[in-house]
Amino acid sequence: MDSSDLGQGAAYAPAEGASLSDVRPEPPFVLVEPLHRTSPLIFASPHSGRRYPAELLADARVGLISLRRTEDAYVDELFAGVAAHGAALLSATFARAYVDLNRDAAELDPEMFDERPPASVHTTSARVQAGLGAIPRVSGDGQAIYRRKLSLHEAGRRIDAVHRPYHETLQNLLLETKAQFGCAVLIDCHSMPSSARGAHAPDIVLGDRFGASCHPSVTALAEATLRRMNYRVARNAPFAGGHTTQTYGRPAQRVHALQIEINRALYVDERTLERTHGHTRVRADMTRLAEALAAASLHKSLA
Prior knowledge:
CATH topology: Aminopeptidase
CATH class: Alpha Beta
Strand order of the largest sheet: 1-3-2-4-7-5-6
Distance between the termini: 17 Å
Number of domains: 1
CATH superfamily: Zn-dependent exopeptidases
Order of helices and strands: HEEHHHEHHEEHEHEH
Number of helices: 9
Radius of gyration: 18 Å
CATH architecture: 3-Layer(aba) Sandwich
Number of strands: 7
């Protein structure tokens, strides 16, 4: 398998004259790996970045708390213990409101820019039409983010500095992991607002694109493990998996991608975005999930 087998989405053309130093005084991700990889597991958190560049704040017509409602707040912290079980953890550092890493780089909203992006099926996707493209138009509470139209140069600069290196690193991790273990299992980690799920909301939603991105044995093991911890678990509704699972999940090639969505009310005050006492419990449980998946991989029971 080469990198093309992983199906990396269409990349936005490099911005002419773009400089990483313009937007990247620190890396756009943090990669935590154990001293010795003993598991084919890779955990990724594309939406927990908390870096808000000054240019974004200057152009925003909404306050920081509105921008932060776009985050999967503290999800990187919830999975911080996975390295103890031989797994890698890749976490974004830049905010989702700046660049959404769970989108194709070409998912650009034509209404946001002073010139039209290159014509593509991606520019008319449902996510773009909802204002949630690679450069989001609306914040997590539905408010328009920008007071002006952006330039395509700015979009390309963000893609080059943040989106591209994150996905290059993730793709390389998957290739290296498969070469080492014979398979790779990507757990794409997210959180969901409780209000959108109704009175009997699941605590956790597992998304494997209805079996297209992940072998059923992996999904079933994750579900059984979480249910033993007394979580209410749903599959593929209302979240079946996004760009990451669609791009990298190739079960026939022994590369599996499973999305996990955690109800934010379990660990954060959704009004203030402050951690609650539940944060400690959920973090411990996600470490236990990693332990169960890692143990299964050691016993060759993962597909």
